[in-house]
Write a structure and sequence with these properties.
The protein is mainly alpha-helical and about 120 residues long. The protein has 5 helices and no strands. α1 packs across α5 and α3 packs across α5.
Length: about 120
Amino acid sequence: SLSRQQREAGMRYREDFRVSAQDGVKPMALTERVDGGRIGGGVADRILSAGRAYADATSALSHWEVSGVVQKVCCHGETVKSLAEQTGEPRDVVSKLLKVGLDLLAVHYGMMLMRRPRG
C-alpha cells in the first residue's frame, strides 16, 4: 500500500542504481597506467551522473537502517517478508522503515513536500 510518490521515488532510485552499476564500469588494478584523456575511453557521463544521483539520494535516507531496507528492496529486489525473516523484526516494522525511506526519497526528488511534525 504505497503512495504514487513512494512508488515513483523507489523506481527512480532503482534506475539510478541500475545505471550506475553498468557493466562498463570495472575496477582497475592500482598498478595500471591511465591516460587523463577522455577520447574513446573513460566512464560515460550518464553513468557518472547516475552514480552521483544514487549517492545523493542514499545520503538523503539519513539513517543506516532506513537506507539498508530501501536499498535491499528497491535495488536488490528483496521482499519485506524476507527482510523481516533475516532481521527478526516484525513485517510491519520493516514495512514502516521502507515507507519512511521512500517518503524521504520522494522529498529528495521533489515529488512531495516535507511534512511538518504535529504538535
